[in-house]
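Notes to self after the call with IL:
- keep both proteins in one doc
- input above output, always
- annotate only the second one for now

Protein 1:
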Amino acid sequence: TTAVMCGGCLLLVASIAPNLFAVTADPKTGVGASPNAAAEPSSKRRRLVLLGALAFLLLLAEGCAMDWSSLHAQDRLGVSNALGALVFGAFVTAMTVGRFTADAVSARKGAVWVVRYGGVAATVGLGIVVASPALPLTMVGWVVFGLGLSGTLPQVLSAAGNVAGATGTDFSRVVGCGYVALLAGPAVIGWLSKLVTLNLA
């Protein structure tokens, strides 16, 4: 099934690719910029690269938590499938609450504050998860991790959309960096867990 789907998609991309290079740039959005377009200012490019790297790291963390939090609890603590599902539920609930409240916090404290201290909280939460010997403490760790992580990505994507001179294409590149990590990160954790413990991975 994978071979058929990948093969079909590769043929589709190969047939469409020449048209993508022939499209002229839209002056309003920048979508379809030609290879001969004027070079971007280095400050704009640097800012977009940094925001893309942040989006990559944040969605890497989110993807790993979404895919591995339940299994991590089962593997490390020896809990049942049902209790492992509760761990996942705690993380997702914290993410949901955080996403709904992040805008209000950002309006009061600023986007940089949300990203900076949200990152600190997420780091502390993940540290608790990795070190915890008991299920209740592990759940607390995932909640802290989810609350810290939840508000960061929206602020990063908002910043990418507001970079001076940024186009829709530029924004899609930042988002694309994040979604590569969201898809690939959990798989890398799976491979690493064959070499080391899941907790270390």
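Protein 2 (the one to annotate):
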Amino acid sequence: MSPSDKFYDYAHLNDIEKKLFKENRSKALLCLANGKLALKYSQEMYESSVLHNGNGDAFRHTLWNYGMAIDVGQGFAKKWADAHENGAKGQPKLEKQMDLYNNKIGRKLAKTYPNTKSHSTFKKNSRAKVRAGKCRIISGKGLVKSSKKGER
């Protein structure tokens, strides 16, 4: 497990996530699995310089929520993503806003493409949103549109 994987195992969940985990272990495990995949694909597809608050981060959150919404439904995916963001300790307000925005984009993708099965399609559709400026990243002291910057 890499150091960044720690966000996707039970021991490192925040209190809100742990409560949800106990309510529905099977859905929670799928949320964690989607998080690990989103992290893996963002690291493969984006330069390290854009993995925190940049296009790679936007891609990761979009892909994560897209996969969760397909696997566990819109309602639980939103609950889990909101729990992840709202329970995070020490996360700056702007980062939380960015993450919540990109999470929503991912869940919208699941509504648009509800029968998505292949990892390549999840990646392609998520990257298309990032490239098209539909996601948000942090630049300076504000949120701006995402782009192709930092793609591998």
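Annotation: Helices lie at 15-23, 25-45, 55-72, 74-86, 93-112, 119-131. The beta strands are 136-139, 142-145.
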